[in-house]
Amino acid sequence: MTGVEGGTIMADGQSLSSVPAAQIAHTFTVPALGINIPVPATPTKGKPEIVKATFVAKKAGSFPWFCEAPCGTGPTGFGGPMATPGWMQGTLTVSGS
Ligand SMILES: [Cu+2]
Q1: Separation of 75 CA from ligand 1 center, angstroms?
Q2: In which domain of life is the source organism classified (predicted)?
Q3: Domain assignment of residue 65, yes or no
Q4: What is the pLDDT of residue 74?
Q5: 88 alpha carbon to ligand 1 midpoint, in Å?
Q6: How far away, in angstroms, is 97 Cα from ligand 1 center?
Q7: pLDDT per residue of the chain (97 residues) written in tens, 0 to 9
Q8: How far is ligand 1, taken at its centre, from the CA of residue 77, in Å?
Q9: Structural domain span for residue 33
Q10: pLDDT at 27
Q11: Residue 1 lies inside a defined structural domain of this protein
Q12: Measured between alpha carbons, how far is residue 18 from residues 9, 38, 48 in Å?
């Protein structure tokens, strides 16, 4: 998904509401909470970019998160880190208040 949902993202100080699919390096996606944060690739190779994201979890619990961009290894890009828990997938735990 290219749109920012359930939060905000700033890339080098610029607020983004979406990132073109071809420019997405990673996503932080939590379907159960309606959160999708696409992370743009660095526009200039070798030049770091600061990306800041915020989101509010609307309920407590443990929810799976994952990256939807094929950023891993292998012919499809879904190997290696994409298939390794703790890298491009995991569990977001939200405490109640
Ligand atoms: Cu990724």
Answers
A1: 15
A2: Bacteria
A3: yes
A4: 94
A5: 5
A6: 30
A7: 899 999 999 998 899 999 999 999 999 999 999 999 999 988 777 787 888 999 999 999 999 999 999 999 999 998 998 888 889 999 999 998 6
A8: 9
A9: 7-94
A10: 95
A11: no
A12: 9, 7, 20
The total domain count for the chain is 1
CA of 79 to the centre of ligand 1 (A): 11
Q: Exposed e or buried b for every residue in 43-64, given b needs 16+ CB within 10 A?
A: eeeeeeeebebebebeeeeebe
Task: Please give the distance, rounded to the nearest whole angstrom, from the Cα atom of residue 96 to the centre of ligand 1.
Answer: 28
CA distances from 50 to 13, 19, 72 (A): 8, 15, 22
DSSP, residue by residue, 37-92:
EEEEPPSSTT----EEEEE--SS-EEEEEE--S--SBSTTS-BGGGGSTTTSEEEE
DSSP tag of 3? B
Cβ distance 42 to 76 under 8 Å? Answer: no
